[in-house]
């Protein structure tokens, strides 16, 4: 252990000692790689100290924490979430606490089964599962730079050199705070304000790590950037923080994928993603969210409270969100665009699948402030089992925004008569030149469709997968190719057991 | 009747008409032919005052009046009729209501007494009958659910009811089968072939001219009239194509 | 019960000061359409008032409500409709507002049992600094199979300072249902306006005719069709 680490640990220990007597205080036998259970100001200090953060960052976190204590969780979503005991969770875990595995044979076979079904290459499986040497098995032919997040701290980045030649900064946000403090300070919390909502504020206080991307003026990022999020440690809340800045005339495509091992206890996740696109810049942000959804009886599963927002600040800037949401017991997520720039463009393409007892309340906000700004929303919700699936969206046109266009299509597909499909669109228009269109439909898979597919040799499950993929096609084709293939398979896996 | 001199016009900053000069007298039928993109439809829209079609130079007089000073509805009241290439659908407004309001607005503008409901229906019935259009169609919303041919026929019924001095007919022949073409051609002759009226036929093909014989034929290419002649010019165009003649 | 605030979903765009001064509201009117019965009602809101009506439509029964919401500084018509097996509900609503008016129509249509049908057509025209809101929720209960519901919501703003809000909401717990919702907010079709002008109508008349067409049809078949249409046109005439 380096001297640097010693100093860091010393500060953490000091913080731990100070609160040892508190009601939710820490036991004295804590291990240095875990912040003890519970959430106090000292938890925040501990995290900041462990990460060796500058003073301004600690102050920012403390301010957020003080505010968070006065806030209440949002109650407007169509979600039934049992009260979360924030003192009964861990807020910091370092990955080295978990032993490196020698080979894939040591990985949970259930995880491997899913990897295999998804068609993830072996080398990448190793990387994902944390197998020793997995980092070296990078897959240059895929041209994807992976910044893998194991538990809470980034441990592997690849392709860094090539990105640096292009001037692209691709770092863990902890590194960026130290290496590029001015850039981080300029935008952190500017798109999602510190007090935006309960979960975002919590994230500000305790975020563990995440990704920072800066694409310089005029640069087209030479490869897709990707982060795989995973949750490994039991009871560890994941508080990821992502900041992507696309400078004038630049382009970046970012892939975010999640897999999670089976866990019995509910796990809280509250990520914040902030995107900024300046003049003529474009960001494409794709997500495949496949976290543990709980078992068939609704036991366990991830609670996923995510705040994602993009600021289309520059003229002709463009941000496109594409998401395939199949995992988590509870999803609360509204990737949005604030369209300030003249002729800026926001897009939201979403497929949300819920099965068994999953609950999803997801959608987007398109805030049109810029003249000539345009947005497209395509949402495909698929509900099976006893699940509930809600699209919730807002399209707002400011009085001075001339010539705004929005088109929204919300389609729901119900599989079985025990699930729910809901659409809650808000449309607020204050400029006469705006043209806003919203269409919503609800349907089920017809017996004729099923019979036709089965008469051609598909079994019931294959038939459903085929039809569902057709239903979601408009969204899936927005994904980068390699992601699209995984996503298609994922839809089928998520709906396992929903027919027959 | 219509005098167009050195007309320049732009659509969204893009110059389309580049010095077009043309003169029509009462009693004449002129055909304007030309390749796609030459500015034929733009000429119709500029003459009838469509917003977004900006005149940057030149002048147009209509019976001695500066046409370009007038609003679209004032041009209509002055006797100018544009037959649309793509007649617009207006859900909720019946043909009858629309035409009566339009006709009476024009009459009022000219200081004439409005037609009563009964008088109007009589005229409408005559014109619809002459063009083989069912009265039921006149009661339906303007152009909604009409086929391409029905829309064009409806334009001719409107022309018959409004009885303009000058008709600019933009690709009235497109989308018509051979029978409809003859009915529409007969309609144009019946309504407009008169000593005090004039017609500007905008067309891509010769075939309408088999039914409506033009007195003059002009070739419009790249925003100007590049050649003028008698009916034989249309046949020549049909035979040799526009490339030869535009050059 | 305290007066609502903007945090209450059903009042989020309301003129809260006006609501407070009217608070507490009278008990909602309660209408029961018996099995196989037919009910028709016209509501013209011209004085700035709040109407709350609960309607239960019995098995195989029908109800048709037509609303013209035009008067007062704050006018609200709120319908809470429950459909039993095979029942039918039709709403035709028009709101036309100018000056500082806040006008709203709120409907909750619950398909409680199978085979019921419902349709809501709402048109709003707003000028000056007026606000027009339509919150239209259709809820389909578990097992209310073969529900057929359509909703068409359109709004037209005449001035930059006017506001249109819409919330066409679906809450569905049955799988064999047909629910189609459409909502459009925009300006008058410029090509349509030009077409009318090219046929001789002055711009204001062309606009008025287009707006007439925009609200026309909503009152088709209403018992007071003529009265409603005339009153709507008169109000439109004041705005254009």
Kindly describe this structure.
Chain A is α/β, with parallel strands linked by helices. Helix content of chain A is 25%, strand content 32%. Chain A contains 13 helices and 21 strands. Chain A has helices at residues 3-18, 41-50, 55-68, 109-118, 122-129, 160-165, 173-179, 181-187, 198-206, 447-455, 460-471, 473-476, 481-494; strands spanning 144-150, 153-157, 169-172, 209-215, 224-229, 240-246, 251-259, 267-269, 272-277, 282-290, 302-312, 318-325, 330-333, 336-339, 345-354, 359-368, 374-383, 388-397, 405-414, 420-429, 435-444. In chain A, the strands form 2 sheets. In chain A, strands 3, 4, 6, 8, 9, 11, 13, 14, 16, 18 and 20 form an 11-stranded mixed sheet that branches. A 10-stranded mixed sheet of chain A has the order 2-1-5-7-10-12-15-17-19-21. Chain A is globular. Chain A starts with a helix and ends in a 6-residue tail after the last helix. The relative contact order of chain A is 0.09. Chain B has a single domain (2-240), classed as Rossmann fold. Helix content of chain B is 38%, strand content 29%. Chain B contains 9 helices and 12 strands. Chain B has helices spanning 40-48, 72-77, 95-109, 117-130, 135-139, 148-162, 178-192, 232-240, 242-246; strands at 2-11, 14-24, 29-33, 53-62, 65-66, 80-83, 90-94, 141-142, 166-170, 198-203, 216-221, 224-229. In chain B, the strands form 3 sheets. Chain B has a 6-stranded mixed sheet with strand order 6-9-10-3-11-12, with helices on both faces. A 4-stranded antiparallel sheet of chain B has the order 2-1-4-5. The longest helix of chain B has 15 residues, at 95-109. The two termini of chain B are 30 Å apart. The mean pLDDT of chain B is 88. Chain C is an alpha/beta fold and 240 residues long. In chain C, the strands form 2 sheets. In chain C, strands 1-3-5-7-9-11 form a 6-stranded parallel sheet, with helices on one face. Chain C has a 6-stranded parallel sheet with strand order 2-4-6-8-10-12, covered by helices on one side. Chain C starts with 15 loop residues before the first helix and ends with a helix. The relative contact order of chain C is 0.13. The model of chain C has no long low-confidence stretch (mean pLDDT 95). Classes of the chains: A alpha/beta (500), B alpha/beta (247), C alpha/beta (240). The A-C interface holds A 76, 78, 399-400, 412, 414-444 and C 9, 13, 142-143, 145, 155-187.
